[in-house]
Amino acid sequence: MSFSAILGQEPAKQTLEHALRSGKLHHAYRFEGPPGVGKGLLALALARALLCERPSPLACEACTACKRAATFSEDEPRVPAHPDLLIVERGLYRSVLQANEASGISIEQVRRIVLSRVGFPPHEGRAVVCIVRAAEELTVSAANALLKTLEEPPSRTFFLLLTSQPSRLLDTIRSRTLPVRFGPLPEQVVAELLAARGLDPTLAPLAQGSMEQALALADTEVLTERNSFAEHVLAGLDAPDLAASLAFAEKQKPERAELSDLLGHLLQVLALKAREVVQAAPDEARKLSRRYEVVRGALGDLERNVGPQLALEAMMAKLRRA
């Protein structure tokens, strides 16, 4: 994956390309942004540029280092073929690690995959690159184990921490990593990417600027479930009293991640409805905007660890007042 092949994240690409061309690349970056917007792809493109045998300064994409950095093993754990490109992710090494990673990326993974390696020079390439996927899932002990290396990195060692929830990272980790921010993908980009995969590009407006969400919605069962949720929520707002809304909320019993996806879809439905009526019915658009903010607040409650059932019931009550 080259820089030019990554669509919709020009500021992030320009920041990193300038750093490469000027020779002033920071040793540790924090890629922040929603899931499915290109953070992982750009991390791999940057890693290839650092490992390339003849960079210019971007990856040539033809040398053996470039090819192996882009080739992942077919067997578990699925890791790059290049020995100087390290990947850290919760559960990635379950076939070789004994640690239980149900609560996050374990200290054992950090010690065995990262710390045991970064103290040595590159095996083959010009650098050692460590990509930490969903870095907010680092346990406190794992983050603290990584911290000293971030403070005093060995020569030619680079860290790329990817996160959709930077506030969950330890302050000490954030202070030692340079942020590169990623925004939602434009609808047109999502539509193009869907069409390139032979999927329905009209799903793009509902995808929240995320290819991860777009690909999920391409599953008819998922799309039907999310549309049904949005329809039931909105129908409850027109009922004579709150009873119908609360009854619907009580039946859901959603998991946190599931409810987050459902609420994200509801946000997009409200945004599209507001867009459709903003010229002809501005008062209705303003009401939809208020409801949009209520749903955003419910998502914020989930991130602050409010129970899913409580967050949903509170949202339904607030929506009727919006």
Task: Provide key terms for this protein.
13 helices, 2 domains, 51% helix, alpha/beta, 322 residues, Rossmann fold
Explain what this protein looks like in three dimensions:
- The structure is a single chain.
- With 322 residues, the chain is an alpha/beta fold.
- It has a five-stranded parallel β-sheet, with helices on both faces.
- It is built from 13 helices and five strands.
- Strand 2 (85-88), helix 4 and strand 3 (128-132) form a beta-alpha-beta unit.
- The protein is 51% helix and 8% strand.
- Helix 10 packs antiparallel against helix 13 (308-321).
- It has two domains: 10-181, 3-Layer(aba) Sandwich (Rossmann fold); 219-321.
Major sheet strand order: 2-3-4-1-5
From the N-terminal CA to the C-terminal CA, the straight-line distance is: 46 Å
How many DSSP H or I helices? 13
The counted number of beta strands is 5
**CATH topology of the largest domain, what is it called?**
Rossmann fold
Q: Nearest-angstrom radius of gyration? A: 22 Å
Shape: globular
Mean pLDDT: 93
Major β-sheet annotation = 5 strands, parallel
- What class would the helix/strand composition place it in? alpha/beta
How much of the sequence lies in strands comes to 5-15%
Order of helices and strands: HEHHEHEHEHEHHHHHHH
Assign the CATH architecture of the largest domain: 3-Layer(aba) Sandwich
Question: Would you identify the CATH H-level superfamily of the largest domain?
Answer: P-loop containing nucleotide triphosphate hydrolases
The tally of structural domains comes to 2
In the predicted model, the low-confidence regions spanning at least 5 consecutive residues are: none
CATH level 1 name of the largest domain: Alpha Beta
